[in-house]
Amino acid sequence: MKRNCPQTARWLHWLCAGGLVLGWLVTGAQAQDPTLPRVQYAIVISVDGLGGVYLSNLFARVDNTYPIPNFKRLKNEGASTLAAHIDNNNYETLPNHTSIVTARPRDGVNGHRWTSNSDPLVGQTIHSVKGSYVAGVFDVAHDNGLRTGMYANKTKFSLFDTNTSYPGGGSYNAVNGALDITGEDNGRDKIDTTFINTALGGIIVNTFIAQQKTNAMQYAFLHINEPDSYGHSSGWGSATWNSQVVVVDTMVGKIFKLIEQDVPAMNGNTAIILTADHGNQDNPPTGAHRYAVPFFVWCPGVAAGADLYALNASNRKVASTYPMTTYTGLQPIRNAEANNLALQLLGLGPIPGSTFNYAQDLKVTLPPPPVITGITHDGHGTFTISGTADRSGKVVLGMTPSLTLPAWTPIQTNAVSAGVPFSFSVPQGADPQTFFRLMGQ
Ligand SMILES: [Zn+2]
Questions:
Q1: How many whole angstroms from 206 Cα to the centroid of ligand 1?
Q2: Ligand 1 centre and the CA of 310: distance in Å?
């Protein structure tokens, strides 16, 4: 049984035929709706040093000393967790942001292999260190004709794109970006607008907003540095640090206003994904304080208020240790899943060669709750179960020989469309008693 929706389970039919007793149990379960909402704008935000444990503490406060109404909007209107995991082997800014941009771990055969946390040298790119081209989110978005932007609060982000002040790196600039072999040639410069500025206090977000109002980007990546800077100077979770999260919250509020008031085309048509590169780098009391980060998905159609782990119970699991020591087996949600999700919400496929959420199977919507509308028997040992669902997705027919100790086995999966009747044909089995159920997946 899926653990989220037992309250929706109900008996619908009992049938007796040829000495066999069959029952159908209908449940709506948490799982994927592959017909995700599509948006035309995606904003991926990384808040440097925004540790999930510390943000959780702010959410838990009952006083109003550090108001975070916009983070609460992200949580209440979006799907989220405060326990996403960063890279297993690294808790520094640039390797983790390279993971976020490329959706790869740092190490291993599929790793991006960028280990430095310093400003890249002139001409030094992710590709030159790896020894082969490492595609990132900017490749996919730009090659598909989207306008792209990067707004970063640290100079080391020149690794992704150079500008006049920061000439090192430039992995996705006009010189080092890959040829565009997808449809129309949009060129090698994968990032149309790059803004790198180390001033705190909002210049990153304010500049993005100003430019978005005049020449909108469909895909933008924003890096905000307050929690990292004040974490190092004042301590993660300190009063100063908490106040700086409030400052970031105000920036998020401006982004909501941008979407809902300033640019009409973005309203109802924009996804925000917000995560972080790491938590407390300096003196974390536990591994979670360093390796756990938030992951918010705010988007039309998303399961409002849902816990991402509950939506993804079959394919993601909260980290068993911080840090995780393996990339095999059931994995936690990763900060570096953000961009393959963003691309999916934009209607695009994953970053070539990437690892995290390459299947784009991180679920952010509720499953379709199927309803049985009829059951017939053809007199020759075959039942037909008809149903409908109010959302598109997959519906799984499962069976078990007993409800005392149920062992549900999925036996058929149908892709269904919202409002379009579907049916399953089920041969009568040899068990004297069999129970069936339908679940959205
Ligand atoms: Zn950082």
A1: 21
A2: 28
CATH of the domain at 305: 3.40.720.10
Ligand 1 centre and the CA of 350: distance in Å?
Answer: 25
pTM to 2 decimals? 0.82
Asked if residues 333 and 309 have their Cβ atoms less than 8 Å apart, the reply is yes
| Co-location of 258 and 277 in the same domain | yes
Q: 90 alpha carbon to ligand 1 midpoint, in Å?
A: 11
> Ligand 1 centroid to 94 CA: how many Å?
7
b/e map 214-240, b = 16+ CB within 10 Å:
eebbbbbbbbbbbbbbbbeeeebbeee
405's CB contacts (< 8 A; 6+ apart) are none
Look up the domain containing 287 and give its range.
41-345
State in Å: Cα 261 to ligand 1 middle: 31
Ligand 1 centroid to Cα of residue 280, in Å, is 9
Does residue 332 share a domain with residue 282? yes
Q: Does residue 181 carry a pLDDT above 80?
A: yes
Q: At residue 33, does pLDDT exceed 70?
A: no
Residues 112-171 pLDDT 10s? 999 999 999 999 999 999 999 999 999 999 999 999 999 999 999 999 999 889 999 999
The neighbouring-strand residues paired with 393 are 416
Q: State whether 165 and 230 are in the same domain.
A: yes
The alpha carbon of 47 and the centre of ligand 1 are apart by a number of angstroms equal to 8
Residue 212 main-chain phi, psi, to 5 deg: -65, -30
Cis amide linkage into residue 120, ω under 30° from 0: no
Q: Measure 353 CA to ligand 1 centroid, in angstroms.
A: 24
